[in-house]
């Protein structure tokens, strides 16, 4: 039996049967997106077999089902990070569960540090690609040849087009960027940020990349949005800290909720 099978059976019994147009993972301080979901049914991660318990403030640790723009959605309020246990595959069971319940695609959100002063705190950025600087991969130890996941279009072009159209419809500027994954939990040094910029990164953060790899392994198309909660260390005086990350992310939650609603409204019915 796969580790996610018990979670799928438990959730079906609790009324979480799909299909779903979209599964969403919320990042630090972005739980307000949940409030936009109508007809919510919720469960604590702790009540779901095999689900990890988030240990970071700003991550609610609850799974929600409901409707966004009339489409059925599954929302993971918070994630477990690789830095909490050293396990880059910490979100494998939740994502495999989403797929098993019939989630057709995945939207990841995160709080990130910006390397571009013109993309200051509170701005949303659509990810076009990523750089894995962590030295970790969630598929290490996977025995099948499925572990050799193509990542040329890790962030699905069709979903990105829908996000751009949704942003334009609500008058929201949505630049694209490349996200560099550092393992954390300490913030990046100014020298590390300079290195990331030389390599082509626009944003730095401590999540999202392992979930993107896992979702592509599972066959789920992925889109991702970063909330720039601060300027990265050494960028125009940037000196990030976790309280700032949570506060700015919370203020950006309304824009993210509007964007997510417009995005899911453009997706096909599951």
Automatic annotation (TrEMBL):
The purine nucleoside phosphorylases catalyze the phosphorolytic breakdown of the N-glycosidic bond in the beta-(deoxy)ribonucleoside molecules, with the formation of the corresponding free purine bases and pentose-1-phosphate. One of its GO terms (cellular component) is cytoplasm. Keywords: Glycosyltransferase, Transferase. GO terms for molecular function: purine-nucleoside phosphorylase activity. GO terms for biological process: nucleoside metabolic process. Homotrimer. Belongs to the PNP/MTAP phosphorylase family. Residues 22-264 form the Nucleoside phosphorylase domain. This is Purine nucleoside phosphorylase. Its EC number is 2.4.2.1. It is an enzyme of class 2 (transferase). InterPro entries: Nucleoside_phosphorylase_d (IPR000845), Nucleoside_phosphorylase_sf (IPR035994), PUNP (IPR011269), Purine_phosphorylase (IPR011268). It comes from Methylorubrum extorquens (strain DSM 6343 / CIP 106787 / DM4) (Methylobacterium extorquens). Pathway: Purine metabolism; purine nucleoside salvage.
